[in-house]
Amino acid sequence: MTHTPINLASLRLAPKVLLHDHLDGGLRPQTVLDLARDCGYTDLPADNPEELRVWFRDAADSGSLELYLQTFGHTVAVMQTPAALARVARECVEDLAADGVVYAEVRFAPEQHLDAGLNLDAVMESTLSGFAEGVRAVRDQSGHDIVVRCLVTAMRHAARSREIAELAVKYRHDGVCGFDIAGAEAGFPPSRHLDAFEFLQKENAHFTIHAGEAFGLPSIHEAVAFCGADRLGHGVRIMDDIELGPEGTFGEAKLGLLANYIRDKRIPLELCPSSNVQTGAAASIAEHPFNQLAQLQFRVTVNTDNRLMSHTTMSEEMLKLVETFGYGWSDLERFTINAMKSAFYSFDKRLAIIDEVIKPGYAVLIG
């Protein structure tokens, strides 16, 4: 049996599933420049694509979630027109497909795109049309299919979460798969938005919550116990409720009540290794709890978070994990199936992608 060597080129051939990716964190540098020129935005920190790419990466390497989030001021500023939203969404699909992603849930906050006079419906329709156009373009150009669905995000420091939740339900048959809250965690607990989550539960709608990234166990506890989150955006701080065995072994690890609950309920963790290091949630890839959580059988998934800010792709995130923790193709297949099982997609369609796309794709690579 011959295994395909794991490198960046072979990883791009592997079918991948992405659950945590921000639309406004994944623009192409040239697109940022083009859109800034089109709308008259003059505050960009660089005027050529390579310098701009480096600036976003370096500015995001702050070790602070609050400072990391400031980089989005530039991308959001140039995403205020129907044409800009549609272009960014279309290019997002094309870039993910080129990296071998077969299913993705891409999130964005419609309330941040109203500065030029658009209303929420116009923002949604422009973005969803861009996603659809991208899917068609990928099929026409490569013959491959990619499924891209939208998570509608509310900003946790604002007071529009119920309105945005209603927007997610309104467009659930047009490409929206669920709801999310994002933004600075400290001082803005998810329980501030209980009315939105109660509405979503009443409507049988899916939702994930950013929790356990910059803030600790209370954020995770509120997200699952009070709000009923289907998934956790990041969730790395669940390690605060886990005591490993002697010399960091897993066999005698002791899980606290919250960690046990998360694992027992198979609540997926949307882990984003590079981004978690940039925001200070982990000191380095080697010290990221991904492997510990994987060894302890939590439902871990691999994600990009913000491809522009982290200068990354799904393939590059997987490669970092392979190089750091020694994973093989079977491990990567497991993480990918974890993600597909956790997608906000109907059961039969999830199963079809696992059986008809993911397993055959990895079988070729495993040999």
UniProtKB/TrEMBL annotation:
UniProt site positions, description: Important for catalytic activity: H234
Record has Hydrolase as a keyword: yes
EC number: 3.5.4.4
Residue sites binding substrate per the record: H22, D24, G183
Top-level enzyme category: hydrolase
Keywords linked to the UniProt accession: Hydrolase, Metal-binding, Nucleotide metabolism, Zinc
Domain Adenosine deaminase: 15-359
Domain of life of the source: Bacteria
Substrates-to-products reaction catalysed: adenosine + H2O + H(+) = inosine + NH4(+); 2'-deoxyadenosine + H2O + H(+) = 2'-deoxyinosine + NH4(+)
Active site: E213 (proton donor)
Co-factor remark: Binds 1 zinc ion per subunit.
Cofactor(s) the record lists: Zn(2+)
GO CC list: cytosol
Gene Ontology biological-process entries: adenosine catabolic process; hypoxanthine salvage; inosine biosynthetic process; nucleotide metabolic process; purine ribonucleoside monophosphate biosynthetic process
Residues binding Zn(2+), per UniProt: H20, H22, H210, D305
Gene Ontology molecular functions: 2'-deoxyadenosine deaminase activity; adenosine deaminase activity; zinc ion binding
The protein's role, per its UniProt record: Catalyzes the hydrolytic deamination of adenosine and 2-deoxyadenosine.
Family classification: Belongs to the metallo-dependent hydrolases superfamily. Adenosine and AMP deaminases family. Adenosine deaminase subfamily.
Name recorded for this polypeptide: Adenosine deaminase
Natural source organism: Hoyosella subflava (strain DSM 45089 / JCM 17490 / NBRC 109087 / DQS3-9A1) (Amycolicicoccus subflavus)
